Each structure stands twice: as structure tokens, then as C-alpha cells.
Amino acid sequence: MTWSYLRKNISSFSLVLVLCISAGIGFTGSFDLSINWASAQTGGHVPGSFSGNQSDSEFWRAIKGGVNGRVSIPDKQAGQLVQADGDNWRLVKNGALSIFGGVLIFAVVLILALFYLIRGKIEVESGMSGNTIERFNGLERVTHWLTASSFIALAFTGLNILYGKFIIMPIFGSEIFSTVTSYGKLVHNYIGFAFILGIVMMFILWFRHNIPNRADLSCLAVGGGMFSKGVHPPAKRFNAGQKLIFWAVILGGASLSVSGLALIFPFEMPIWAGTFNLMNMVGLSLPTNLTALQETQLSVLWHSFSAMVMIAIIIGHIYIGSVGMEGAIEAVGSGQVDINWAREHHNLWLDEVENKKI
Ligand code: HEM
Predict the structure, then answer these.
(1) 201 CB within 6 A, ligand 1
(2) Which of 52, 132, 175, 277 is 20 to 30 A (C-alpha) from 30?
(3) How far apart are alpha carbons 343 and 358 in whole angstroms?
(4) How far apart are CA 195 and CA 303, in angstroms?
């Protein structure tokens, strides 16, 4: 069903993607596919013998330690050749952050596999009636798949940036890894704009259906009815669990979008000095005089952290929207869901739609 829907709508879908990529090119300047490969020094020689009465090793040790020299150009930061804080930043990124992300994703996959083994697929208990009702219209479905496909492309290319050197490089070698990563980074930068558009459209289309209400509390109290058969808490168009997913996507998407844009435009969009200023108003004492490099380092950490949390949430969403629940995928495929599915999962919404028809 999903595939035939996708085939039918492939032209409008591609058009939106092309428009987003063009917007990305417009924003970032050019679509430059030429890649300048970094060339390593050969022979192990470093430049030396120009440090007066200091030995070369002392000279380079001081530079590596982050010493500030003097420059006559307006950008005084150019006087620091090596930012020593970068070593700590790299330790956090390649250490704690990467381990956190890996463990989180592995844990989510494991929990879902166990859940599937114990609970199995959540079926339509009254059986499929064969009669359907429209759940999502064309615009809603295009919006869902624009956001979903761009997120998945961003997730894979982003995970490669973080973990590729530990997984792809040892298996396929550094040449394949560097080619995959160079093109993957371009994909990541441009597809980001399609994702931002998807998030904005989702917010506009579904915001009013995701305002929390009293029914959400009783839905949460019985775990959304996911853990036992015969439990179907009343729900409007979206139940409590879906509202949590919606807000995670909107807030997580906004966080990823802003930090991602700050990484594409490091000089035009410093976000951390202002954020820390605000946080200092509630008693913290965070640094507010940050260089562009420090801003970028913080954005990388935040962007990667938000991405890991969001990937973990979306794996859960993909599970429940596909293999985990009978009759759900049709909602974003053909747009039509079985009446019995709607009655079991969204009875208040079904009543509303049927009352409107009368
Ligand atoms: C292959 C991947 C995916 C599948 C199979 C899938 C499946 C579904 C299904 C079946 C629904 C409708 C549920 C209903 O009728 O109540 C839905 C809704 C939704 N999807 Fe996806 N989805 C996927 C990827 C994504 C991604 C990557 C995002 C966002 C980054 C996303 C965000 C949403 C949101 C916000 C909703 C509405 C709230 C909800 O139902 O949870 N989806 N999806």
C-alpha cells in the first residue's frame, strides 16, 4: 500500500526535495562537489629552526599547549595556532558521547526485540472490517514522508560521521571511508533543509491535535494499552504516546535544526553565548565570551547528543508504526485505515468524524 502510494506521489515528493536542496544551495552559496583531499606530511619533518634561542621542540610544545602569539590583523584569535581545549572536546566527542549514543541505540533495539518476542504484534482484536476511513490526507502524508526520508538520510550520514571511523574504516579501508564520508557530509548538509521544512509543516498541520488533554492521563495510566490485550484507552486523533512522539519530533527537530544551521554558518549564527547569557540569569556562571571555534565545538556536542536521543525515539516510532502494530502503516500509506482499527485506537476521533458525516 505504502509503495503504491509513494509511486503515485513520487513526482510531488521529488519536487519538494529538489526545492529544499535548491534552497540549501542558495543559503550555503554553491553546490560544490569537488573534494579536496587532505595530504599528509611525508618524512615526519615539521618546520623548525626559526624560533630564536628556543629549541624547536619547546617552540612546538608551547603552540600545542595553546599559547597566544601576536598578530597585526583585526582577528586577534588568529594569534592562537592550536586551541588546546580541542583535545578535551575530542575526548568527550569520541569517548563519552559516542559511547552514550551507541549504548542508547543498542538498548532501544534490544528492548523492542524483547517486547516483540513477549507481546508480539498488536493486532486489531475485533478483526479487520474491510471498511475504511481517511486518517491522513495527501498533504499530511507527503509531509510525513518528507520528514521521515530526510531524517533517515540524516541519521545514516550523521552516524557515519560519528562512528564510521570505528566501523566502516577498519572493514572497508580509509579510501572507501573518506569517499563515503565526503559525499555523506554533502548529503547531510543539503538534506537538512528538507528536514527543517518537514518539521515546520508537521507543526502547522498537527499542532492543534497534539495539545494535551485529560484523556491523555488515563491513556498513560494504562501504558496506552500496549502491554495487555483488551485494553483500549479512549483517544482523539492522537493518543498520549503519539503526542509525546510529536513533541519530541518538534522540539528535537528544532534543536537539531538550530544547532545544524549554527554548524553550517559558524560565524553568522553564534548560538551559545546568548544561550549561556540566559542561563546565567538563573544563577549559573557559564562563559559568554566564546570564540567561533568554541561555539562550533559546543554545537557539535549538542547536535550529536540531540541526534542520538531523537534516533532512539524514532526507532521506537518506526517499530510501532510498522511491524509492531497491525493496520497502522496504512495511515501514512494510502491514508485509509480500517474502521475497527480506528475504533480500538482512536474511538473519540472516529466518533467525531462519523458525527460530522451525519
Ligand atoms: C520508516 C519509517 C516510518 C514509519 C514506518 C512511520 C510510520 C508512521 C505511522 C504508521 C504513523 C501514523 C500513526 C497513526 O495513524 O496514528 C506515523 C505518524 C507520525 N510519524 Fe512516522 N513513521 C516513520 C518515520 C518517521 C520519522 C523519521 C519521523 C520524524 C522524524 C516521523 C514522525 C511522525 C509523527 C510526528 C507522526 C504523528 C504522531 C504519531 O503518530 O506518532 N515518522 N508514522
Answers:
(1) no
(2) 175
(3) 18
(4) 14
**Domains in the chain, CATH or no CATH each:** 2-6+89-357 (1.20.950.20)
Distance separating alpha carbons of residues 41 and 334, to the nearest angstrom: 57
Q: pLDDT tens for residues 200-252? A: 999 999 999 999 999 999 999 999 999 999 999 999 999 999 999 999 999 99
List the end-to-end C-alpha distance of the chain, in Å, as a whole number: 29
Tally DSSP H helices, then E strands, for the chain.
13, 2
Dihedral angle over CA of 157, 159, 163, 164, nearest 10: -20
75 phi and psi, to 5 degrees? -80, 95
CA 303 from centroid of its chain's CA atoms? 8
The atom of ligand 1 lying closest to the CA of 2 is: 5
Q: How many residues does the chain have?
A: 358
Q: Which residues contact 152 (CB under 8 A, 6 or more apart)?
A: none
Nearest CA among 154, 150, 127 for reference residue 199 = 150
The residue type found at 158 is: G
Residue 329 DSSP code: G
Q: Which residue(s) pair with 336 in the sheet?
A: 134
Going from the Cα of 317 to the center of ligand 1, the distance in angstroms, rounded, reads 6
What is the Å distance from ligand 1's center to 21 Cα? 23
Catalogue the E-assigned strands of the chain.
132-134, 336-338
CA distance 16 to 141: 13
pTM: 0.84
- Rounded CA-CA distance 149/156 in Å is 11
